[in-house]
Amino acid sequence: MTVRELIDSLERAIPRSLSCEWDNDGAMCVPDPDKNVGCVLVTLDVTEDVIEHARTGEYDVIVSHHPLVFKGQKSLTTEQNVQRKLIALVKAGIACASYHTRFDSIDGGVSDALADAIGLADRIPFGDAEAPAAGRVGELPKAINAEELAAAVRDALSAPAVNVADAGRQIRRVAVVGGEGGDFIGAAVKAGADALVTGRAGYHNAIDAAENGLTVIEAGHYHTEARSLRALERVVKKCAPQIETGIYANPPIKTI
User: Fold this and answer.
1) What is the pLDDT of residue 31?
2) Other residues' Cβ atoms within 10 Å of the Cβ of residue 93
3) Concatenated DSSP letters for 140-159?
4) Beta bridge partners of 244
5) Which of 90, 116, 227, 234 has the CA that lies 20 to 30 A from 158?
6) HSE on the CB side for 43, CA within 13 Å?
7) 1 band by pLDDT with thresholds 50, 70 and 90
8) Which of 145, 115, 130, 124 has the alpha carbon at shortest distance from 191?
9) Which residues make Cβ contacts (< 8 Å) with residue 26, sequence separation at least 6?
């Protein structure tokens, strides 16, 4: 399978129609579309460390969740980190494709992986007008309080710590959104959630939500999305069963 064929297959498996209008994902860098693909590296972020790992590990393609290129580039120099990484990829002959908001929404993607981690049953998609299926809302096996849910989320995601804005009520119905979930607080309330679990909601957003009856648990952007790497790897393997895959999972931001 060539790079072009792999990316075409991924585009069908993770359709662009699920991407938010503001998003920029898909093919990021393709030095040689006709290059045969032997090994793919799956990661959340295309950092310089990831590119070096791909180069030394002889990976042909990097498939990431977060887009390598998000804003338009006006030049190509080594002075800016995104441009520097693009140059490094071209020099190494490594392609890169990113699947962002569409992988949040897709069945089995980021939100389902997060819902699986904390054991939500009978879950359905929820979201706002722009991303109606970005999150999931479902039921815990039994009602628990905010501190119990926070501890369960922390342990399930192997997060070093979580932030909790406690609404002071028992929690049974939980909404989850990986990454930045502050914009989905209103949608979580409309979905009947007692709590929202996300990566980050924002200080004032979380306080306001709790005072209006919705507990908010922030477990970190990385930790609410990292479990989905296995799911992304499975999509890659389904598109190209013959290739080798690897996962780079190393938080670029540490909690000290």
Assistant:
1) 98
2) 12
3) EEEEE-HHHHHHHHHHHTT-
4) 39
5) 234
6) 24
7) very high
8) 124
9) 7, 11, 16, 97, 98, 99
pLDDT digits (tens, 9 = 90+) for 31-58: 999 999 999 999 999 999 999 999 999 9
pTM exceeding 0.90: yes
Euclidean distance between CA atoms 204 and 206, whole angstroms: 5
Q: What band does 76 get if pLDDT is binned at 50, 70 and 90?
A: very high
Secondary structure in 3-state letters for 198-248 = EEECCHHHHHHHHHCCCEEEECCHHHHHCCHHHHHHHHHHHHCCCCEEEEE
**pLDDT (average), residues 56-80:** 95
User: Per this entry, what is the length of the chain?
Assistant: 256
Provide the token pair at 217: 């648990």
